Amino acid sequence: MQSVFIDTNIFLRYYIREDKQTYLDCQKFLKKVSQGSIRAFINTLVISEVYFVAKTQYDISKSDCLMLLRNIRGYKGLTLLDSYNYSKALDIFEVNNVKFTDSFIASFQPIVDGQMPIVSYDKDFDKIPGVKRVEPSAVK
Fold this sequence. Notes:
- The chain is of the alpha/beta class.
- 51% of the residues lie in helices and 11% in strands.
- A 5-stranded parallel β-sheet has the order 3-2-1-4-5.
């Protein structure tokens, strides 16, 4: 079974539905996660970013944000995994032009070694050597 890490924007593009095609791609991908046919991981940074972006950029109410976060928690094939390499994250952040939170996500050893792809639309992950980023439509 394939293991992947899900970035914040996948959940937001599914729940916000700004673009029909990305919504459909995320829906199909997240259905596979929900059914347990894909083993997926997130961390607390992703959860925090989902809340922060939904609240501040999309003006979603606290109660709707909580519903969104509870829905995420309910995916059968999704595991919360907080494993960071603090030193590696700072090195990634220093050398690459990426967001601070992205450097922490990428510091997880299977991600930085290219063994676990990040499902994301954020092309900044492509700047980090060793990290493999895929879009939802590419996950089989």
